[in-house]
Amino acid sequence: MIEFHVEARSGVPTYLQIVQQVRQAVRLGLLQPGDQLPTVKEVVGHLAINPNTVLRAYRELDVEGLVEGRRGVGTFVTEGVTVLPPDEVAALRTSLQQWVRRGRAAGLEDEHLSALFAETVRPSTISRVA
Predict the structure, then answer these.
(1) Residue 75: beta bridge partners?
(2) DSSP-H helix ranges across 28-85
(3) Cα(51)–Cα(15) distance, rounded to whole angstroms?
């Protein structure tokens, strides 16, 4: 089961932090179809937040089709969600860790690595003026 962590000073609303953590856990295969999310009561007890915040996050995930609420039972990752196999995620993580080490060895700081990664994932239309 996933355990949520919220950063009060991040500037990101708490419900969105929960949504993002579930999305990431599903993408990385940490949550599989059929897995149950913590109950609203459990999250509220652990994080000391308003129950409506958790309900809002779960509702948004439900609308996205990532989870489904079962009245009186809980909230579960939807069966139709596509998840990468854990061994594939591990292999990709290893490759990425090697890439990060190479970048740091070349003198790049985290901000540079993040910018390079973001530009590689979503190439911009910014071009260099000669």
Answers:
(1) 69
(2) 40-47, 51-64
(3) 10
Orientation of helix 51-64 relative to helix 40-47, angle to 10°: 130
Nearest-angstrom CA–CA distance, 114 and 112: 5
What is the distance between the alpha carbons of residues 94 and 100, in angstroms, rounded to a whole number?
10
Name the burial class of residue 59, with classes exposed (0-12), middle (13-18) and buried (19+) by CB atoms within 10 angstroms of its CB. Answer: middle
Closest CA to 22 of 14, 34, 30, 10: 30
Q: Which residue has the tokens 């003198």?
A: 107
Convert 84-102 to b/e letters by CB count within 10 Å (16 or more is b). eeeeeeeeeeeeeeeeeee
In DSSP terms, 76 is beta-bridged to 36, 68
pLDDT in tens, 69-115: 999 999 999 998 877 787 888 899 899 999 999 999 999 999 999 99
Can you give the pLDDT at residue 127? 58
- 15-24, 46-55, 65-74, 80-89: least confidently modelled range: 80-89
